[in-house]
Design a protein that fits this description.
- By secondary structure, the protein is of the alpha/beta class.
- The chain has three domains: 4-174, 3-Layer(aba) Sandwich (Rossmann fold), CATH 3.40.50; 191-341, Rossmann fold, CATH 3.40.50.1220; 358-537, Thiamin diphosphate (ThDP)-binding fold, Pyr/PP domains (Rossmann fold, 3-Layer(aba) Sandwich), CATH 3.40.50.970.
- It has 22 helices and 19 strands.
- Strand 14 (382-386), helix 15 (389-397) and strand 15 form a beta-alpha-beta unit.
- Helix 1 (7-17) packs across helix 2 (32-41) and helix 9 crosses helix 12 (315-329).
- The longest helix has 20 residues, at 338-357.
- The protein is globular, with a radius of gyration of 24 Å.
Length: 557
């Protein structure tokens, strides 16, 4: 016989066995037994001011470490508050474990506090969902959740734990921890298709690679760099793929889709053909371009357009196969002058932006702000971009040299994850700087998480690009309805002293109105050793090229 423990202690033991260090949460009676168990197991409770941020922090932990983040949401409004964070993680394929509290089973349909059907509501936005009805099976259900979150294409999973199941006491000898329940095997691609893909790339006159988050999740940066060097392939990176190859590499053009519109062969590596890539169709993709698509999810192959070669499997494994094929057959690329053409294009584009990047105008041009940030941050720093147009400016200016250091809103386009992402990244890498670049509208969604940072002593810097409104919507409305009428369509916020709010919560803050003051302000903010806000008065007229007219982050085209 073992010792008698309640279900919350079984949850904590299972999480500890998975190496979980933090549980991101907000207090709630339905999940209190989990908190009690975490104290015994040494898992730190990181409590936030809104459940949405608890999910965003779990997501940010996953993005920073490559390992699942874990959050716990109390029943009813706790779960509903977390919905946006869950949906954002689902669309970004981030591995999360969401533990949801629920009313006691023995009061089902009697009208207990916060009774609702969470499962039906959450089901469309998770990879797997389950409810544990037996306290002794809690460790087993935790193992099932981790297996689904981390194998194949990663994603968020939801495990519901009713209040009486968590509170019930059982003999822990009857609830053993699961062991050896996940494989580290990587699914390789069909050798014949790998061979065909390599032959297409090596014979192409204008080949391009677009690689995305799957490269980060599989740890395939080294193999990706080997491929582009062996085949002399211009490379564009999306989302968490940024930094997989250093963006100062002569073949890597970061988020810029250089050469895509002129390409004759495009390798789409571990990223989806969604709106961010024009669905793989004209005008972004040429009409007759040949597409090679690699994805761990079979249903993504050929989505939105036909493909010449579709390979299902793990990015690291397949890139290794492609490199082996090139070496074994001693293949050399056939194109000449293509790389130089792409390099000349990006050089011209950077020259065209130089005036804005160095502008001394006031209010400050957003590209000058973002250029100053890029020049200030060391390569190991994490930069999170949260907003509409400010995220586009940030992506254009920031050159990533290491993986896992760039985070943005992602394909779902939810505003507000930035605070959670940044705090989690700082927890994951406490010795490295973390900076959040936020729009002023976006700041208002989860700005109270500054208090979370103060309470838990998590120093970071938020730079607010303050143009007094919802910039992306404002500019779209100006073009669609005229400036005078467009300004009346719920886009005005006013220039607010967000730095004062951060000061009031115990952090450091200052207002910047001149471009020459940006860098000194950043230096003081980081030197403060506290959560800090640099509130920058920014030009509301500037619009990035290729801007979308929705509350989303499309990335530069």
């Amino acid at each position: 016989m073992g010792s008698t423990v309640h279900g919350g202690k079984l949850v904590a033991k299972a999480l500890k066995a998975e190496g979980v260090q933090y549980l991101f949460t907000l207090n709630g009676g339905h999940i209190a037994p989990i908190f009690d168990g975490c104290i015994d197991e040494g898992i730190k409770l990181l409590d936030v001011r809104h459940e949405q941020s608890a999910v965003h922090m779990a997501d940010g932990w996953a993005r920073a470490t490559g390992r699942p983040g874990v959050c716990a949401l109390t029943a009813g409004p706790g779960v509903t508050d977390g919905i946006t964070g869950i949906a954002n993680a689902y669309h970004s394929a981030s591995p999360l474990i969401i533990l949801g509290g629920a009313h006691p089973l023995n009061k089902h349909q009697m009208g207990p506090l916060q009774e609702m059907d969470h499962v039906s509501m959450v089901r469309p936005i998770v990879k797997w969902i389950g409810t544990c009805y037996d306290t002794q099976r809690i460790p087993e259900y935790i193992s099932i959740a981790f297996r689904h979150a981390t194998t194949g294409r990663p994603g968020p999973v939801y495990l519901e734990l009713p209040e009486d199941i968590l509170g019930k006491k059982v003999d822990d000898a009857l609830a053993p921890l699961a062991t050896q329940y996940r494989t580290a095997a990587r699914p390789h691609g069909d050798p014949a298709m790998v061979r065909q893909a390599v032959e297409l790339l090596m014979a192409a006159e204008r080949p391009v690679v677009i690689a995305g988050s799957g490269v980060w999740w599989s740890g395939a940066g080294k193999e990706l760099q080997q491929l582009i060097e062996a085949a002399e392939l211009p490379l564009a990176l999306t989302e968490m793929g940024r930094g997989a190859v250093p963006e100062d590499h002569p073949l890597c053009f970061g988020p810029n889709r250089v050469g895509v519109r002129q390409a004759d062969v495009i390798l789409v590596m571990a990223t989806r053909l969604n709106y961010q890539l024009g669905y793989g169709r004209p005008p972004m993709f040429p009409e007759n371009v040949k597409v090679i698509q690699v994805d761990i999810e079979p249903s993504e192959i050929g989505r939105n357009r036909p493909v010449e070669v579709g390979i299902v499997g793990d990015a690291k494994a397949i890139l290794g196969q492609m490199n082996d094929e090139i070496r074994r057959r001693q293949l050399t690329p056939k194109h000449t002058g293509w790389v130089e053409e792409c390099q000349a294009y990006i050089q011209k584009r950077r020259q065209d932006m130089e005036a804005d990047a160095t502008s001394d105008q006031t209010p400050i041009h957003p590209l000058r702000l973002c250029t100053e940030i890029n020049n200030f941050l060391p390569p190991k720093a994490t930069m999170v971009a949260d907003g509409g147009e400010i995220s586009i400016w940030g992506a254009l200016a920031k050159k990533m040299k290491l993986p896992g250091r760039w985070m943005d809103n992602g394909p779902f386009g939810a505003l507000g994850p930035g605070f959670g992402f940044t705090l989690a990244a700082k927890l994951a890498r406490p010795d490295e700087p973390a900076l959040l670049l936020s729009g002023d509208g976006t700041f208002g969604l989860n700005g109270m998480e500054v208090d979370t940072a103060v309470r838990h002593n998590i120093p970071f810097v938020v730079v607010v690009g303050n143009d007094g409104g919802w910039g992306m919507s404002r500019h779209g409305h100006w073009m669609d309805y005229g400036r005078e009428r467009g300004e009346q369509l719920a886009v005005r916020l006013g220039v607010r002293p967000y730095h004062k709010m951060v000061e009031g919560l115990g952090g450091y803050g200052e207002l910047v109105e001149r471009p020459e003051d940006i860098r000194p302000a950043l230096e003081r903010a980081f030197a403060s050793g506290r959560p800090a806000c640099v509130n920058v008065a920014m030009d509301q007229e500037a619009m990035p090229g290729g801007r979308q007219r929705r509350r989303q982050h499309p990335g530069p085209a």
